[in-house]
Design a protein that fits this description.
Blueprint lengths: L6 E4 L4 E4 H12 L3 E2 L5 E2 L5 E3 L3 E3 L4 E3 L4 E2 L3 E2 L5 E6 L2 E7 L3 E3 L1
Antiparallel strand pairs: 1-2, 3-4, 5-8, 5-12, 6-7, 9-10, 10-11
């Protein structure tokens, strides 16, 4: 039996595993879950609705409750999502103020 892959020791499980399996396991552990105001899991590309009026700092504009935001992007922070909205550049919303559509 010949293999071209390296094995690494996983201290958490106490077992030897393929390096590629260890890397995949580490990537899953690093992934942050982002949940909306009611606990729904959010993902890149989801559409969300605002659950309250929000004043946008620097834009001089207020986004009203019920405003639909399409195609969100996750930032790696469990509380922040990156959004696009006409007339506002670099909009970042907190997950606690949105509900998944």
């Amino acid at each position: 039996m010949s293999t071209d892959e390296d094995y690494v020791y996983d201290e958490a499980s106490g077992e030897w595993m393929l390096a590629s399996e260890q890397a995949a396991k580490q990537a899953d552990a690093d992934r942050v879950e982002v949940r909306d105001a009611v606990g729904n899991l959010l993902a890149d590309g989801d559409a969300v609705t605002l659950i309250k009026d929000l004043e946008v700092k620097g834009a001089g504009q207020t986004l009203k409750q019920g405003t639909l935001i399409k195609s969100i992007r996750l930032t790696g922070d469990a509380q922040e999502i990156d959004c696009k909205y006409p007339g506002i550049k670099g909009l970042v919303l907190r997950a606690e103020f949105v509900r998944k559509r």
